[in-house]
Amino acid sequence: YVPPQVKKSQETLDDKKREELARLKKMVNGLINRLSEPNLPSISGQMEDLYMANSRKDMNETLTDILMNACVTAVAMPARLMMEHVLLVSILHHNVGVEVGAHFLEAVVKKFDEISKSDTEGKECENLIALIAHLYNFHVVHSLLIFDILKKLVSAFTEKEIELILFLLKNVGFSLRKDDALALKEVITEAQKKANTAEKKLRDQTRVRFMLETMLALRNNDMRKIPGYDPEPVEKLRKLQRTLVRSSGKETQLRVSLESLLSADQVGRWWIVGSSWSGAPMINDTDKKTQQKLHIGKVSSKIMELARKQRMNTDIRRSIFCVLMTSEDFLDAFEKLLK
């Protein structure tokens, strides 16, 4: 039973919240619509102010929705415009907090996974891959995710996947080569094997031959062999990024795998420090959970009494407390804690 006055106040709160969110959406939308390279400094500054004035959750959700609606369309998004949108996310990711980029990245990857499984005719997949590629270009995400996506595309190896592999390699191939040449070599070898064992109809396609030539050019670090390759726009925006990012010296690239992002709802988001998680247990235990026995040897009742007084209310806390209290020196404590 909810008393009428409480019900009324809840409804008023909900209406107020809806109004606030609508106003916030309007403000963020206005800023995103005006987004261009010359006014990026002022827009990113205004976005940071909005982050300070509103809850992070509301801001992350609003920004992600607006950017997804703007960038994930059935027609190919202009490369320049795409880069500017991602650069804004990158600046906020570095200046406001890693949860900004993490929230956007998770939404993009989940949408990509969903659309790649469906048979859509539009250019949504290319736009999503471009978003992921530029998130890597502007140091929001680590190359680990890009290699995971490349492996996934190579293992499927249909016409659609070949297009996406080419698009990725053209956009971030040389950066991947700098980051992890060995992993790139493995992906290239796997793609060559797939191309050789593919059915004749697919193998004879000029697109497949072009993809193999591109991979060869990447392996040999030959930029001239890739038609239309122009690193200039990305480099120009990276310079702008360096002027706008307040470097704090800490690592902000998200070193997260494709599998972790897709199963975030089941296993939590370990890559965001302090993110709350109220899901099911991380390990699916069908049997009864066996209590872990902690070997701390014989501990006097006096120490156990002290532990109880200090509110060490779990086995592991009691064990750590007892180890610290009974160790001879720091090395002894270290050895016991390791055990």
Strand-helix topology:
Blueprint (H helix, E strand, L loop, with lengths): L3 H30 L6 H14 L2 H16 L7 H17 L2 H20 L6 H14 L5 H14 L2 H21 L1 H17 L2 H4 L2 H14 L12 H13 L13 H5 L1 H4 L33 H9 L5 H12 L3 H9 L1
Helix pairs in contact: 1-2, 1-3, 2-4, 3-5, 4-5, 4-6, 4-12, 5-6, 6-8, 7-8, 7-9, 8-9, 8-11, 9-11, 15-16
GO biological process, one term: ribosomal small subunit biogenesis
Subcellular location: Nucleus, Nucleolus
Keywords: Coiled coil, Nucleus
Word description of this protein:
- With 339 residues, the protein is an all-alpha fold.
- It folds into 2 domains: 16-263, Serine Threonine Protein Phosphatase 5, Tetratricopeptide repeat, CATH 1.25.40; 301-338, no CATH class.
- 69% of the residues lie in helices and 0% in strands.
- It has helices at 4-33, 40-53, 56-71, 79-95, 98-117, 124-137, 143-156, 159-179, 181-197, 200-203, 206-219, 232-244, 258-262, 264-267, 301-309, 315-326, 330-338.
- Helix 1 runs antiparallel to helix 2 (40-53), helix 4 (79-95) crosses helix 6 and helix 15 (301-309) crosses helix 16.
- The longest helix is centred in the first third of the chain and has 30 residues, at 4-33.
- The protein is globular, with a radius of gyration of 26 Å.
- It starts with a helix and ends with a helix.
- Mean pLDDT is 82; it is low at 284-296.
Summarize the structure.
69% of the residues lie in helices and 0% in strands.
Main beta-sheet strand count, sense and barrel state: none
How would you state the average pLDDT, rounded?
82
SS strand fraction: under 5%
> What structural class results from the helix and strand content?
mainly alpha
Element order: H for helix, E for strand: HHHHHHHHHHHHHHHHH
Radius of gyration, CA atoms, in whole angstroms: 26 Å
Distance between the termini: 53 Å
CATH fold group of the largest domain? Serine Threonine Protein Phosphatase 5, Tetratricopeptide repeat
Beta-strand segment tally: 0
Report the helical percentage.
55-70%
Mass-distribution shape: globular
Total helix count? 17
CATH class of the largest domain: Mainly Alpha
Instruction: Domain count, please report it.
Output: 2
- Give the name of the CATH architecture of the largest domain: Alpha Horseshoe
Low-confidence stretches: 284-296
InterPro entries: ARM-type_fold (IPR016024), CWC22_splicing_factor (IPR050781), MIF4G-like_typ-3 (IPR003890)
Function: Plays a role in targeting PPP1CA to the nucleolus.
Domain MIF4G: 25-222
Family: Belongs to the CWC22 family.
